């Protein structure tokens, strides 16, 4: 991609109608503005949340300068610059993917070393999923019983919601979750 970018930059119409010195100046300006955007762009890390406001402001300012430069170009020059921007974007994505792949073995190594927090959270998540499935099955059993009692498929779930709000103290809830397979060692 870098070689393709260089070839395109050398052959692009940034300054065909200008004097050769202006061509060098214009290409140099483009290279400077592009480098400023690259430097101001936050690195592709696995950080959660948006980048710091200072980084965002610096990136926005660098992009605005580059966009102002592009706005002054002729239409054919804008097309060439657009292709240059596409190549830069592809290069950034490729770099981010490479960084991600390089970091994956390190993440796998940390997890395989027996990181207790990760294991505990995965066990906790698995337990919550089991509890959720049992609670859903208990509600289904409740619905089936109410449908048989009332002879209709439309059931008012207010009683079930009240039982859920009371928790383990409610005999109705307790009866259905036991039928659904609730483990007595699970907290309710």
Write a structural description:
The protein has 188 residues and is mostly helical. Helix 2 runs antiparallel to helix 3 and helix 5 crosses helix 7. The two termini are 57 Å apart. About 3% of the residues have low confidence.
The overall pLDDT average reads 76
**Strand tally, please?**
0
Q: CA-to-CA gap between the ends? A: 57 Å
What oligomeric assembly is this protein in? single chain
Q: Indicate the radius of gyration in whole angstroms.
A: 31 Å
Q: Assign the structural class, choosing from mainly alpha, mainly beta, alpha/beta, alpha+beta, or little secondary structure.
A: mainly alpha
Report the order of strands and helices.
HHHHHHH
Number of distinct helices: 7
**Low-confidence region ranges:** 15-19
**What percentage of residues falls in helices of 4 or more residues?**
over 70%
Per the principal axes of the C-alpha atoms, what is the gross shape?
elongated
The main sheet comes to:
none
Q: What proportion of the residues form beta strands (DSSP E)? A: under 5%
């Amino acid at each position: 991609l870098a070689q393709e970018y260089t070839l395109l930059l050398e052959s692009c119409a940034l300054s065909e109608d200008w004097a050769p010195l202006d061509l060098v100046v214009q290409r140099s300006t483009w290279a400077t503005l592009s480098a400023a955007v690259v430097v101001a762009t936050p690195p592709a890390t696995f950080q959660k949340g948006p980048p710091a406001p200072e980084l965002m402001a610096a990136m926005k300012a660098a992009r605005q300068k580059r966009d102002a430069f592009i706005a002054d170009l002729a239409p054919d020059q804008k097309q060439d610059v657009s292709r240059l921007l596409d190549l830069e974007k592809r290069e950034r994505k490729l770099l981010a993917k490479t960084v991600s792949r390089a970091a994956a073995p390190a993440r796998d190594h940390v997890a395989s070393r027996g990181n207790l927090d990760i294991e505990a959270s995965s066990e906790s998540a698995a337990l919550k999923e089991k509890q959720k499935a049992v609670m859903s099955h208990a509600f289904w059993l409740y619905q089936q019983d109410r449908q048989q009692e009332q002879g209709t498929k439309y059931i008012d779930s207010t009683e079930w919601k009240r039982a859920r709000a009371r928790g383990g103290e409610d005999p109705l809830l307790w009866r259905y979750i036991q039928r659904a397979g609730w483990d007595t060692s699970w907290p309710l």
